[in-house]
Amino acid sequence: xxxxxxxxxxxxxxxxxxxxxxxxxxxxxxxxxxxxxxxxxxxxxxxxxxxxxxxxxxxxxxxxxxxxxxxxxxxxxxxxxxxxxxxxxxxxxxxxxxxxxxxxxxxxxxxxxxxxxxxxxxxxxxxxxxxxxxxxxxxxxxxxxxxxxxxxxxxxxxxxxxxxxxxxxxxxxxxxxxxxxxxxxxxxxxxxxxxxxxxxxxxxxxxxxxxxxxxxxxxxxxxxxxxxxxxxxxxxxxxxxxxxxxxxxxxxxxxxxxxxxxxxxxxxxxx
Length: 271
Known about the structure:
Elements: E1 2-6, H1 13-25, E2 30-36, E3 38-39, E4 45-46, H2 49-64, E5 68-74, H3 78-81, H4 89-107, E6 113-120, H5 129-139, E7 146-152, E8 167-171, H6 180-198, E9 202-206, H7 219-228, E10 231-236, E11 250-251, E12 254-255, H8 258-268
Parallel strand pairs: 1-2, 1-10, 2-5, 5-6, 6-7, 7-8, 8-9, 9-10
Antiparallel strand pairs: 3-4, 11-12
Helix pairs in contact: 1-2, 4-5, 6-7
């Protein structure tokens, strides 16, 4: 199981070391650095200087504590970041690839990069199948990291570049109806079909853990996945470095129930 740590939060060095130490004490061994994309004056993707600096500092700390490393690129407001893609998706993906080569991969030289999440829910770009395939092929010549991309269960069958990736990335969103069991059953149909078609494991790249009832949101979905689909990894994106970690975990100020915490530890050892 991977714990997501935001690279947009510039914590002092002592606080970063403290939080990573707490994660280590709780038994976590994998850290996924969540790197938000921005755009330059021409609409092309970039990292803010503060994010780039935080990324380098976090990677150094993660390496010092012997955590396994993953990096996940994402956009808080995709419609804004992808404005240029409406004109030329190939050009946007080319600029994105250059960003990964010039900023992300060099920053990861201090520690072996195991997983590189090439985004999640970049819906404006998903139709450019050849562009994604080309980028993945080029990346493989420069990194041994496993590549994954994340989308929601209802869109998984629409993407045509899964064969170029090492895992099928899943983004868990809260059920609009509140019936998460029904949503999990429905999504699992799509997910298991695609996983079997491409012979790929799944990787849960983004999770919405907490609901009004403070229960684990994807608990039922995982039960379905474990019956027929290999789960390569799970990233808990709600746990950030500046959260307060205790035996019962506090995420965004909401205490998780002991049963949920026990469930997390169970999956931590396996994923």
